[in-house]
Amino acid sequence: PGWHIECSAMSRKYLGQPFDIHTGGIDHIPVHHNNEIAQSEAAYDQPLANYWMHNAFLNMGGEKMAKSSGGFITIDSLKEKMLSPLSYRYWLLTAHYRSPINFSYEAIQAAQNALIKLMTALSEQPTGGAVNAGYKDRFTDFINDDLDLPKALALTWDLMKDDAISAADKRATVLDFDKVFGLNLADFKATAEDDAPAEVIALAEAREIARKEKDWIKADALRKEISERGFEVKDMEGEFKITHKNQ
Fold first, then answer.
1. Which of 10, 176, 184, 196 counts the most CB atoms within 10 A of its CB?
2. What is the mean pLDDT of each run of 10 residues along the chain (247 residues)?
């Protein structure tokens, strides 16, 4: 039994039986999850879980991303390409969890551009608004429909373009959506002169590492990327400061 029995034992101890949602990859359906069900239900005469959600593979070059094969991307891999981990998360939200998805750095870059656009637009909206009930209901319907995050994300952009909704209400509603998305949109502030978006801070931190490693070519490339986003990095003793280019 091995790992099959340990999963049944741990879930029973920490979650009880039945627990609500059991997740895992589609490759666990034919053997591992069937073993869990058989032994848990035989032992306690009740269902193991109320819902089973199986995600499709994240593919690289036609093969699934797997630690065992060595074909996987790390967070550091993204940072080396000047890509934010939150951009990777945004990219994952664009595909349904039961649909296979093909990794490429170009796709993550496109997701990062979209995320920056959303962050920037939100930063320009006033605070003090209220969550729009109509959009919240539609969002909830999509989430409750087998976790349809791609439609929920598309709805977010529909909301941002809706002239019938006030700017403050747009901001409040999107930040409410972000309780599910987990993109940390509320942490994005660009109102103060020395504030900078999370994406720019990540680029500046990567540049600082490159400078310490004396990788001047990479450091210059990162400075240029930061400049193209409307900010400058000022090097100080042992630290750096990010300012708007017009400061």
1. 196
2. 86 95 93 94 95 90 60 78 86 94 90 86 87 98 96 97 96 96 76 58 80 86 85 77 72
